[in-house]
Design goal:
The complex is a heterodimer of chains A (194) and B (471). A 4-stranded antiparallel β-sheet of chain A has the order 1-6-7-8, with no helix packed on it. In chain A, strands 2-3-4-5 form a 4-stranded parallel β-sheet. Chain A is an alpha/beta fold and 194 residues long. In chain A, strand 7 and strand 8 form a beta hairpin. Chain A is globular, with a radius of gyration of 19 Å. Chain A contains 8 helices and 8 strands; from the N terminus they run ββααβαβαβαβββααα. Chain B is α/β, with parallel strands linked by helices and 471 residues long. In chain B, 31% of the residues lie in helices and 17% in strands. Chain B is built from 16 helices and 19 strands. In chain B, the strands form 5 sheets. Chain B has a 5-stranded parallel β-sheet with strand order 5-4-3-6-7. Classes of the chains: A alpha/beta (194), B alpha/beta (471). The interface between A and B is large, with 55 and 83 residues.
Chain lengths: 194, 471
Amino acid sequence: MEPFQTVKSIVTPLDKVNVDTDQIIPKQFLKLVQKSGFGKFLFFNWRYDENENMKSDFILNDPKYNDSKILVTGDNFGCGSSREHAVWALDDYGFSVIISSSFADIFFSNCFKNGILPISLESKIIEKLLQETNAIEVDLENQIIKTSSEDISFEINSHKKKILLEGLDDIAQTFQYKDEISEFEEKSIVPSVL
Amino acid sequence: MGKTLFEKIWESHIVVEKQNEPDLIYIDRHLVHEVTSPQAFDGLRMNNRKVRRPDLTIATMDHNVPTSDRSLPILDQTSAVQIKTLENNCKHFGIKLFDINSPNQGIVHVIGPQLGITLPGSTIVCGDSHTSTHGAFGALALGIGTSEVEHVLASQTLWLEKPKTFEVRVEGKRKNPHAVTAKDIILSIIKNIGTAGGTGTVIEYRGEGISDLSMDQRMTICNMSIEGGARAGLIAPDQKTFDYLRGREYTPKNYESLVDSWKDILKTDSDATFDKQFILNINDIAPQVSWGTNPGMTCDVDDSIPSPDKFSNGDVNQKKGAEKALEYMALESGTMIEDIKIDRVFIGSCTNARLEDLIEASKIIQGQKVASRVNAMVVPGSQMVKKQAEEMGLDKIFIDANFEWREAGCSMCLGMNSDILSPGERCASTSNRNFEGRQGNGGRTHLVSPVMAAAAAISGHFVDVRKLDLN
């Protein structure tokens, strides 16, 4: 995973609550067996009509947001299915920060495995960010979002911050504890399945 | 101070504990399916890693399999490749697979308990959010993403932040338990706590209204914990739990001694406290029908669709969501639920496709015919459920009523295979999610219990099953 760098871009305001992972990446695209190339399917049913023409009224189809790396959205983003394809699609499309008033747990955890920073902020700050038309800067190191008018600080668990900043491979980290895992297995009373 | 059941399971699975960091938690059972695993196996291969404990890992194919004639080749080439990929991966990494022709094939959350793979007090993960189902047995069962699937395959552990605890106490007794089901209890809970009400928590369902339920019904409750946003759902094991798992194909040989070790421990201590609590009295609850595009948008069958104002209780965003939902569902507030006509009926999914669900639904349709406007199908949760149902003659009851009787799989719950709604079609579904396009682009889903779905199939519209003679 690439280390997370400070991001500066305009925000894409997706003013919706309870955006579920079925909307982020519909099921017909879950048949693929690779991790790449999901960006073109992001929000597929909202972006395209039945003839696969772009719907002009959907925010992502407004060319002014083409280079945006920051998605701002409403409560409970990423609810529903555990499909990591949702995060792969957001990443591949070009988003590296998602700012919302709240996230669903599995989606939130999936973000960190793919170098995407999810930031939770109070609803009233989200309301303001949804209106922000200038570029904003997200500085993870200092936990600050700089807008044209103010600096907004955000919370993040120190362990998760480290994973993103250093682009750590989770599994390699865990392998440092192989002895502890083996010790646990020796005393476990739960038998094998087979 | 005492501990909750969740805290006891968590603490007994900590491998590494550090200050202000997640705990490294040991995973006792890993269930794998074709959709969320290929990229995880690829990751192992790229890094030259093995599966640490193939003997704790079980795979099946469910999400993407056809439910029609299994002797025919799979027409959709992308699906065929994904299914073949799982076969190759299981072979390569030495994992036991119940493939499309296995008598044990089925929805992963149906076969785990049925085969005795799910055990009380254990930790279970699967790359599927409805893993919470296994919590009905007092297991801590978590849905995970593909990166975590890879992590568990490689290390049999996960770094997890300890969730908070949430007590959902279900009090009282249902007047007509054949008409008001476990599905109606869990939909009522979600309607009240909201789809994010359980975020960051593990719910423990407690009280008389829960202990009265059969194991099949308890699985329906825990299954939909994720629809309330929870990380997992739990029910303390009791005699029903222990009896259910006894003598199954993969039940451990030392089962009785395990039961002895679980009996006194696997329950919340009387002086334990929860971080959050919600109480539901079920004396007077009605069968539930969802009207919107998330499972919190649900009302009583004898009620009318609420106005966005009433539903949102002053929350502007929720109001917008409700307006959008009504538009998508082509419904108007004030419409009586019983006046809503349906085109399709789906009895299936990890929520409601177990034997008891099929038995209850069959009682409604026995000797009757599906309404001419309706196309109805039953997709048993596993090949084993299908076989048991056929031994009881249930298949004949459904087929005589003009239901389609299919092979096991996830099917139209998520519509990855060819079982989908056409745009604009309205479906009474026993599944768990009524999201936009979930069952097919433009399709409109109403979540209901199996008896409600069966009654709707016969009438062509929703009916209050409390009015029917179900005894």
